Amino acid sequence: MKICRLGLLMMIILLLGGCAVFQKVGPAEMIIHDGHKDLVSSIKQQIEDTDEIYDTVVIAAKDKILVTYKVRHLNRFKMKSIEKKLTTWLKDEFPDKDVDVSSDFKIFLESYNLYEQWEKKELTGQEAEKKLYEIIHLKNEMT
Amino acid sequence: MKKQSASQKAYQDLAAVHDRKRPVLLNCVKAFLVGGLICAIGQAVTVVFVLYFSFTEQTAGNPTVSVMIFLAMIVTGLGLYDRLGQFAGAGSAVPVTGFGNAIISAAIEHKTEGYVLGVGGNMFKLAGSVIVFGVVSAFFLAIIKTLLIQWGVIG
């Protein structure tokens, strides 16, 4: 009985500890290549105006732009339509840009790591671009 | 229901009076809680895969299913899963862990008949139908989806 109770306590602690993983880290943007400033800020504005989304990371490289976000929990059933709305808006606004949109937690995590490393100036532009391509490759993986 | 003669029906009525009532609601609650607990463990496994390995939320599903089946197999081999099954009923059988339990419990049951004809031949006695109907329904669903996409009904 005692072991049972101890195990239950451990499990609750572990489960609650898991919450720290999903805490809000705040919106972030990262510009590897200059000349995308207006674009990134307008994308950010649009995302901030969308109520269902929080915690966004926008990364802009020379020819690729990655937008990742988290969906509020009660809106997760509508994830597909939120993503569709965002992609159509991006297509209308920037038809000549290659923009990837993802709500996947892993993609968010990786891009936020990349952003943090970039802010600490640990990466050169080339390295950061390479990492961005890796993330986009991961995003497009299906199996 | 099968056709019953008058005496059979009289006996059934008599038996129903003396039969102990099944606590359906309580069983449902137990199954719900235990099934939910198993799914919570599965979610934790998914989160581990997402955080520490290069899986996305989309691709973490397959390894999670394998891990959960594997865990259920080990727990069945230790003899703990039957207790859980007695307590929770469908709550322990409906999640994918029930599949691992079905394989290993059949293997244990037929161990006395030898490894080839006993374990090997009877391992998939129950789980075989899961695989058969899973594959067949996946096949037909894939055909329907392909056709619908070809005809442009769905994107």
Task: List key phrases describing it.
heterodimer; A: 143 residues; alpha/beta; GMP Synthetase, Chain A, domain 3; 4 strands; globular; B: 155 residues; 2 domains; 8 helices; 75% helix
Identify the overall geometry of chain B. extended
Number of strands of chain B: 0
Main pleated-sheet profile of chain B:
none
Helix content of chain B: over 70%
> Regions of chain B with pLDDT < 50 over 5+ consecutive residues?
none
Distance between the termini of chain A: 43 Å
| Secondary-structure content class of chain B | mainly alpha
- The percent range for strand residues of chain B is under 5%
CATH architecture of chain A: 2-Layer Sandwich
Task: Using a beta-carbon cutoff below 8 angstroms, give the protein chain pair with the largest interface and the number of residues from each chain.
Answer: A-B, 13 and 13 residues
Describe the strand arrangement of the main beta sheet of chain A, using strand numbers. Answer: 1-2-3-4
* Number of structural domains of chain B: 2
Q: Could you name the CATH class of chain A?
A: Alpha Beta
| Quaternary organisation | heterodimer
Any chance you could write out the topology, listing elements then pairs?
The complex is a heterodimer of chains A (about 140) and B (about 160).
Chain A: H1 2-17, E1 28-31, H2 37-49, E2 53-60, E3 64-71, H3 79-93, E4 98-102, H4 105-119, H5 125-140
Helix pairs in contact in A: 4-5
Chain B: H1 6-18, H2 24-52, H3 61-77, H4 81-88, H5 90-93, H6 97-109, H7 115-122, H8 127-150
Helix pairs in contact in B: 2-3, 3-6, 6-7
